[in-house]
């Protein structure tokens, strides 16, 4: 179980780093965004499926997830 938790942590870290570049933000801005819209939980909960996808697909998935959460708030 510990290995899976490490794999998830590395995956989330990878997503944060890639998303930072994707939206031209710094790490704190991405973390604030991920916290606000619960992206980290989504990535962790769906690790088994998401970690097999391409970088570009993941970035689009995160964009879509955040947009969906924004629409739910309105």
Which helices and strands appear, and what pairs or packs with what?
Elements: H1 2-22, H2 27-37, H3 39-45, H4 47-50, H5 55-73
Helix pairs in contact: 1-2, 1-5
Explain this structure to me?
InterPro entries: DUF3791. This is DUF3791 domain-containing protein. The structure is a single chain. By secondary structure, the chain is mostly helical. The protein is built from five helices and no strands. The protein has one domain (about 1-74). The chain has helices at about 1-20, 25-35, 40-45, 45-50, 55-74. It starts with a helix and ends with a helix. The model has no long low-confidence stretch (mean pLDDT about 95).
Q: Tell me the domain tally.
A: 1
Name the beta content range: under 5%
Beta-strand segment tally: 0
Low-confidence stretches: none
H/E element sequence: HHHHH
Gross geometry: globular
Structural class: mainly alpha
Mean pLDDT across residues: 96
Gyration radius over CA: 12 Å
Instruction: Count every helix, treating DSSP H or I runs of 4 or more residues as helices.
Output: 5
Give the termini distance in whole angstroms.
39 Å
Q: Helix coverage percent of residues?
A: over 70%
Largest sheet: none
Short summary of the structure?
The chain has 74 residues and is mainly alpha-helical. It has helices at 2-22, 27-37, 39-45, 47-50, 55-73. The chain has one domain (2-73).
Structure characteristics:
74 residues, 5 helices, mainly alpha, DUF3791, DUF3791 domain-containing protein
């Amino acid at each position: 179980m510990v290995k899976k938790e490490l794999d998830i942590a590395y995956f989330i870290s990878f997503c944060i780093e890639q998303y930072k570049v994707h939206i031209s933000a710094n790490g704190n801005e991405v973390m604030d965004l991920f916290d606000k819209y619960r992206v980290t939980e989504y990535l962790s909960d769906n690790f088994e499926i998401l970690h097999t996808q391409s970088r570009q697909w993941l970035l689009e998935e995160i964009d879509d997830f955040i947009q969906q959460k924004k629409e739910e708030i309105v």
